[in-house]
Amino acid sequence: MRWLAVPLAIALGWILFTLSPLWALYDLAQAVRARDVGYVESHVNFRTLRLSLVRQTTAAVKAATDQNPDLGPRERQQLGEAATGLALALAETMVTPATVIDLLDDGWLDKVEQGRPAAPARAGLRIDRVGGLVPYYLASEMRGFRTVVIAIPPGRPRQDQTRIRMRLRGWAWRLTDIEVTETLRQQMAAGLARTLAKANLRGRGEQREAPVQP
User: Fold this and answer.
1) pLDDT at 125 over 60
2) 150 DSSP β-pair partners
3) Which of 47, 97, 110, 133 could form a disulfide with 41 if both were Cys (CB 3.0 to 4.6 A apart)?
4) Nearest in space to 100 (alpha carbons), one of 48, 149, 172, 141
5) Global confidence as pTM
6) What pLDDT score was predicted for residue 200?
7) Parallel/antiparallel/unpaired status of strands 162-169 and 147-152
8) What is the spatial distance between Cα 6 and Cα 121, in angstroms, rounded to a whole number?
9) How far apart are CA 76 and CA 106, in angstroms?
10) Which long-range contacts (CB under 8 A, 24 or more apart) does 159-164 make?
11) Arithmetic mean of pLDDT, 163-185
12) 3-class SS at 72?
């Protein structure tokens, strides 16, 4: 039976490896619960997270403008470019450790007041004990050897879940991406569109007030 030792060891090693991100998830959940900004700051790749949220928001803006029959292709392109530039600028200041805690706590951003659904009692990342990791393990998806995607909260419909992506760097798992719910994505896009509209109005007002050069 010695010939079974190698494949069994490999299988056991793989199971232990797939369990390893859950310990990082548990620590992250405790940090969210304790509002530990320092832990979140050191265990989140904010560069990739900001770019991901920008892509999600601008994609929703693009989908909305594509459905507007009053806009031509050139206008849609200009709006898309302006929305991307504005989203990148806002992401630098708005996507912070406190924002990540806010989002993971209940799947919504307190800064987004409109469209907030009636959240269930356990809508966010809540793991009170080690045994509570089991549903997250069953809902996790390994993407190769260094990336795992986990649905939060597990067991709920896909449209009500926030999906996080964790990536192994060195010997530690770090949060690199948060895919927000469709409802929140739409509200973020609407907020971005309103900010863009206000910026355009201010720009037009300044042009009208500009003195005419002799």
Assistant:
1) yes
2) 140, 164
3) 97
4) 48
5) 0.76
6) 58
7) antiparallel
8) 46
9) 34
10) 159/183, 160/107, 160/123, 161/107, 162/103, 162/104, 162/107, 162/124, 164/104
11) 89
12) coil
Token pair, residue 66, equals 């594509």
Token digits of residue 144: 């190769």
CA dihedral 171, 54, 122, 25 (to 10 degrees): 0
**Side-chain-side CA neighbours of residue 134 (13 Å):** 3
* Position 104, amino acid: L
- pLDDT band with cut points at 50, 70 and 90 for residue 212: very low
C-alpha separations of 182 from 51, 65, 120, 158 in Å = 17, 17, 16, 9
Q: How far is CA 68 from CA 65, 175, 177, 193, 196, in A?
A: 5, 36, 30, 13, 16
Instruction: Please answer whether residues 112 and 184 qualify as being in contact, where contact means their C-beta atoms are separated by less than 8 angstroms.
Output: yes
Distances from the Cα of 208 to the Cαs of 79, 95, 145, 204, 214, in angstroms? Answer: 22, 35, 58, 6, 16
- Spatial strand order of the sheet with 140-143 comes to 140-143, 147-152, 162-169, 172-179
Report which of residues 75 and 138 the model is more confident about: 138
Tokens 């997250």 belong to: 136
Q: What is the distance between the alpha carbons of residues 6 and 111, in angstroms, rounded to a whole number? A: 53
Cβ neighbours for 197, distance < 8 A, ≥ 6 positions apart: none
